[in-house]
Specification:
Number of strands: 0
Strand content: under 5%
Protein name: Phosphoribosyl-ATP pyrophosphohydrolase
Coiled coil: 31-61
Number of helices: 4
InterPro entries: MSMEG_1276-like_NTP-PPase_dom
Order of helices and strands: HHHH
Keywords: Coiled coil
């Protein structure tokens, strides 16, 4: 039996059960949950970097967004709270739409 030891989506146990396989799960404490969300986020970002077409990219971005939604309650925040912070940072420092690539700064 393969051992995964990783955070999975909430419906994965039911999907495994319907396939007739046996499995073991446990519910993570909030501190463990955040650690595993961070690990899963790193995994999904890597998968996004490996995509070769827009559909694959959107699938991975959706996974990243789902992990962000999962992390927010742990930080006692809502998506609206996060969006306010994003907008404020964008108004102050801009976004990333223009593709500006900083090469160097001469501090003299």
């Amino acid at each position: 039996m393969p051992v995964y030891n990783k955070l999975v989506r909430d419906l994965i146990p039911q999907i495994i059960e319907k396939s007739g396989s046996k499995f073991t799960t446990r519910i993570l404490h909030s501190s463990e949950h955040l650690i595993e969300i961070k690990k899963k986020l790193e995994e999904e970002v890597h998968e996004y970097q490996e995509t070769t077409n827009s559909q694959e990219a959107l699938e991975e971005l959706a996974d990243i967004l789902e992990l962000i939604h999962a992390a927010l309650p742990i930080h006692e925040a809502t998506f609206e709270d996060l969006e306010k912070i994003r907008v404020a940072k964008k108004e102050k420092r801009g976004g990333f739409e223009q593709g500006i690539y900083l090469v160097e700064v001469d501090d003299e």
